[in-house]
Specification:
8 helices, eight-stranded mixed β-sheet, alpha/beta, four-stranded antiparallel β-sheet, Hypothetical Protein Ta0175, Chain: A, domain 2, Rossmann fold, 14 strands, 2 domains, binds magnesium ion, globular
Amino acid sequence: MSLRPLVLDLDGTLLHTQPAPGAVTVPGRTRPSFLAGATLDALIRLGRRYDLVLATGRSLAGTRIVAEALESRGARVAGLVVEDGGRCGPPGAVRPLEPHRRWRDLRAALEGERERGWPPFEWQDDFESCLVARAVEREEAAALAPTLLHRARRHDAALRGFRDGRKVYVAGEGAHKWSALQALLGEGAEGAAGIGDGENDLVWLRRVALPCTLAGASPAATEAVLGAGGLVSRAPGHAGLAEVLERLEALA
Ligand SMILES: [Mg+2]
């Protein structure tokens, strides 16, 4: 990569649940999300001045839809970080960050230990470099998260876990968005600009040169961005994203 990296989270950052003019619809299990037409236009322009890197907790399949929407309109995507850092690379060559891990074996072991009293859940098959259990209700996911992580850590202590809505992630302790960005970008990672909104973005928003977030982001993300002298939009959602992209364009 040769240009300054621009790291872009997807859900709650590039993608919002409100429809927008000229938007690309990104299907979801719970509800669709929208990549606004104005966002696409801005990213096509920004892609000439920055190396665009998508960094998300989504699976590769769930991310490709967005990457292909950008590329089909002429915005070049330089890199992908998917599965919350479990896998990264150029769009055609995404690799696990911790290839030694045997996720299928861990999943089979946990499946064998499933007990009555655990909230119901299904494994999400499109994740390859972490485990994602999807509960029926958010409250059930909240109850499942500590139980599942505790059991998983009996097999391997170097695991981390977190909940995102109805999904519970069990991931490698050393594989997160920041370690994946470092693997992908080398020393260039620290000089990056980027936009993120969630708890799983804190690891990198605190480290890059120009972190940005949107009004309505998680309080911790807003605090991290303000603490680093970054940009926070005035508006939330698509309009807030347009503000930040405009500022980044002026700075480039
Ligand atoms: Mg997000």
